[in-house]
């Protein structure tokens, strides 16, 4: 049985093709969507699928946004 985690963290990055990509830290969970509203739904669904037992499912999903920005020197 897995340990109960109080939260799970996802790195959110813009997809060069379109939309956003979410990758969980410490768990093999990955999903993507074309807009942020849909991405949040997809992340919740992916967490529910990965942790089908509510007792082991993290209570909080934290989204950490990563954005690359290039500036001229």
TrEMBL record:
Protein name listed in UniProt: 2-oxoisovalerate dehydrogenase E1 subunit beta
Organism of provenance: Brasilonema octagenarum UFV-OR1
Top-level taxonomy: Bacteria, Bacillati, Cyanobacteriota, Cyanophyceae, Nostocales
């Amino acid at each position: 049985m897995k340990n109960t985690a109080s939260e799970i963290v996802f790195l959110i990055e813009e997809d060069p093709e379109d939309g956003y990509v979410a990758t969980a830290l410490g768990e093999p969970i990955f999903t993507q969507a074309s807009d942020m509203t849909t991405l949040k739904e997809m992340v919740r669904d992916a967490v529910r699928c990965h942790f089908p037992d509510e007792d082991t499912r993290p209570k909080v999903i934290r989204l950490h946004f990563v954005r690359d920005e290039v500036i001229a020197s």
